[in-house]
UniProtKB/TrEMBL annotation:
The gene is LOC114477276. Bifunctional enzyme that converts glutamate to glutamate 5-semialdehyde, an intermediate in the biosynthesis of proline, ornithine and arginine. Gene3D superfamilies: Acetylglutamate kinase-like, Aldehyde Dehydrogenase, Chain A, domain 1, Aldehyde Dehydrogenase, Chain A, domain 2. It comes from Gouania willdenowi (Blunt-snouted clingfish). Its main location: mitochondrion. This is Delta-1-pyrroline-5-carboxylate synthase. Keywords: Amino-acid biosynthesis, ATP-binding, Kinase, Mitochondrion, Multifunctional enzyme, NADP, Nucleotide-binding, Oxidoreductase, Proline biosynthesis, Transferase. Can form homodimers/multimers. GO terms for biological process: L-proline biosynthetic process. Pathway: Amino-acid biosynthesis; L-proline biosynthesis; L-glutamate 5-semialdehyde from L-glutamate: step 2/2; Amino-acid biosynthesis; L-proline biosynthesis; L-glutamate 5-semialdehyde from L-glutamate: step 1/2. PROSITE patterns: GLUTAMATE_5_KINASE, PROA. GO terms for molecular function: ATP binding; glutamate 5-kinase activity; glutamate-5-semialdehyde dehydrogenase activity. It catalyses: L-glutamate 5-semialdehyde + phosphate + NADP(+) = L-glutamyl 5-phosphate + NADPH + H(+); L-glutamate + ATP = L-glutamyl 5-phosphate + ADP.
Amino acid sequence: GIISRQSICTKDDVARPVLRDLPVPRPHGKCFAHRSELKQAKRIVVKLGSAVVTRGDECGLALGRLASIVEQVAMLQNQGREMLIVTSGAVAFGKQRLRHEILLSQSVRQALHSGQSQLKEMSVPVLEARACAAAGQSGLMALYEAMFTQYSICTAQILVTNLDFHDEQKRRNLNSTLHELLRMNIVPIINTNDAVVPPPVPNSDLQGVNVISIKDNDSLAARLAVEMKVDLLIALSDVEGLYDSPPGTDDAKLIDIFYPGDQQSITYGTKSRVGIGGMEAKVKAALWALQGGTSVVIANGTYPKLTGHVITDIVEGKKVGTFFSEVKPAGPTVEQQTEMARHAGRTLASLDPDQRGEIICCLAELLTEKKDEILSANKRDMEIATVSGSFSQPLINRLSLSSSKLNSLAIGLRQLAVASRDSVGRVLRRTRVANNLELEQITVPIGVLLVIFESRPDCLPQVSALAIASGNALLLKGGKEAPHTNRILHQLTQEALSIHGVSDAIQLVSTREEVEDLCRLDKLIDLIIPRGSSELVRNIQRAAKGIPVLGHSEGVCHVYVDSEASIDKAINVVRDSKCDYPAACNAMETLLVHRDLLRAPIFDQIIDMLRSEQVKIHAGPRFASYLTFSPSEVKSLRTEYGDLECCIEVVDSMQEAVDHIHKYGSAHTDVIVTENEDTAEQFLQQVDSACVFWNSSTRFADGYRLGLGAEVGISTARIHARGPVGLEGLLTTKWVLRGEGHTVADFSEQGSMTYLHENRPVPQGRKI
């Protein structure tokens, strides 16, 4: 083979420190079973297809794209991984150079012999690929070297042909050279020697692990990966990955995980616009590498969709491209679960309201009958979570179930069963558009809901019952801290659904799906509802692409104690708002006190009560200024403590309290305590929050307590649903028009009909 060093490195380069702990080496020969394990990959080959490296006009390199790839490879190399690149691009780079030289030469000759007027008639002859490769190799390597130098990384060029793998001595030499380069922290950049390589031969030898011809960079990357005992091969092309039919066809679906033996179920399209391989060649090479012990991902390197960093996304285990695995999961994929839920959900929506109510009542009965089994599973989760030390105390508190909680759940579900009889198919509006042309607006399910919740397993039956009542399909993704509780609650839910044959309508996602991956299923999921910490909600809102998110990111709730407040009411409301369940999103986080109360007995009694309840107090800036020895000053007035802590701040008036709430609150729940009705009404009117209360605890901001039966969460959004979201918030509408052959032309100037648009009464209980 032709082996040349294109860079020189010093001892300091070789010994540079890594930026992160090294991935743990693993025995070669066993591929990674799941995407999440790709983080452990230490030795990685990145194969860059011609379509990735070259511009759209096929003359020259896509420099911006190449710079991003180099940055990602350098990042992984500096983490302590061993990176190898198999690259195309020499032919395109050489074609650009040769075209330039030919045009320049022609222009000089024609200028000398024919004058400037004939320059427009110049044409470039067809360029032979081997000549282009010979002209482009040095320039391509110089570009790589210049880019990697920006990250203090050395590179080396290696050109190979098929003979370098079939000749035992050359194969050993190549292997030794590559290992030595990796040992010295050098990134080998490998390419087929296209200047001398013979024409491609058929794929007849892509069988078994001992023989594979080097006919393109796909086969080269696969052979190299097995030869070097590589952990991961990332093959970048100009398609998202492998599809079950040619990309662009109506029913084509991207295959997330591809297993050996599945190739009979797919059909291949045409090859890419450049290069000599196609998807079929990539799949055969990938399966060959997989059989040899290397995990493979085929992905799009021309238009990365997620963070713009396709290589690092793949190594981090994100759902990018097609992952080749030898291990089939025991159950359905999340995409299959979603399809199952959607199909069964349509049947659920078509049931009579009484039938959906029967399912909910059955679930309520099962929560009572199976109480001991549920609490036993919950106890196991609590013990594991406590011993692990990985979870905060507020999160563990939310994880806990009790007999009283289960009883309250069952009561709420029975209330919901009654309410569900007047949900799906309810007529909201009737209009007589014209003679014999009647319009109705009716309620319908949203479709497929994805509810992601952490801790709080009592959320599962609540949300399930609401989905049943509203006729929606449901995907549930619970936290890793409550697997046993979630599993038994989901089993009971499916048992209840089975009485009317719709057990698949509610699915529990128990695979290793990352939340970010679920949030990208925009063609399968219609609404995402997060239930958990503000960090979880913010992460989901950022990750959701094309799917609306219903929820609130924080619960910074206020109680304002006015100058005309009752002492008893103030103490009771503040105590309940903060101490009843401090981990809840509707717990008080900031207590606003009118300035006139600072020297009054009511203030001392509130402080004494909070201290007796062991509430840690943080002083707002203004409150701190009144005190000689103050509690710790608050770091932020927008803090959601989720524990027995709160902030106290002083205001001069009700209006100042409103302004403070609008500036620092989260539009969740805010309360005024006062005996002055006019002041209270002004507060209720002016505060722009989902829930605004007078002389009552923030803890009433709950679907069950407000008579909704249950809730999927509390929304601070202003579109679709706001506040505790119960049954109504999970319905949308559609318009139904009944006519007798009416056309728009009938209502034109030349037509015979006129619009009436008369509102018609809606009979009580009217259903479509």
